[in-house]
Design goal:
about 60% helix; elongated
Length: about 120
C-alpha cells in the first residue's frame, strides 16, 4: 500500500519512488509483477500523472522496473541482480577484512560510515 503524505517536506514523486523501491527490495513486489499504469496510480493516489511518471522513470533508471511499451511497467530482474552483486561484494569485503585483521565490529562501523557518507558513483 502506497501512502503519500501531503504535509511531508519530501516531494510526492520521491515518496512514491521510495515506497515502490522498498516494496521491490523487500520482495513485496516480486520480479515480473506488473505495476499499475501511470494514469491509474495517479488517479488512485490523487497525484498528477507527471508526478507518477517521474517516480517510474527514476525507478527505471535505477534498474528496479522496466517498461515494455504498451504492455506496461514491470518489476525488473535487475533488482535481483543488484542484490546478488551486493552479496558478492560483501563476501569480498569480508575476505579483505579477515586478511588485514580487522574485527567484525570495526568492519561494520566502516560499512556504516560508508553508507552514511554515500558512495561515489564508480562511473
Amino acid at each position: 500500500m502506497i501512502v503519500i503524505d501531503s504535509a511531508s517536506p519530501v516531494p510526492p514523486f520521491e515518496q512514491l519512488r521510495a515506497q515502490l523501491a522498498a516494496q521491490i527490495q523487500d520482495r513485496t513486489l516480486a520480479v515480473g509483477a506488473r505495476l499499475p499504469t501511470i494514469r491509474r496510480l495517479a488517479g488512485d493516489l490523487g497525484l498528477a500523472v507527471n508526478t507518477v511518471g517521474r517516480a517510474y522513470r527514476e525507478l527505471e533508471e535505477a534498474g528496479l522496473i522496466e517498461t515494455r511499451g504498451a504492455a506496461g511497467s514491470f518489476v525488473s530482474a535487475a533488482g535481483e541482480q543488484g542484490r546478488e552483486r551486493a552479496r558478492r561484494a560483501a563476501a569480498e569485503y569480508a575476505a579483505v577484512i579477515a586478511s588485514v585483521g580487522i574485527d567484525a565490529t570495526e568492519a561494520v562501523r566502516i560499512v556504516q560510515a560508508a553508507l552514511t557518507q554515500g558512495v561515489p558513483d564508480p562511473t
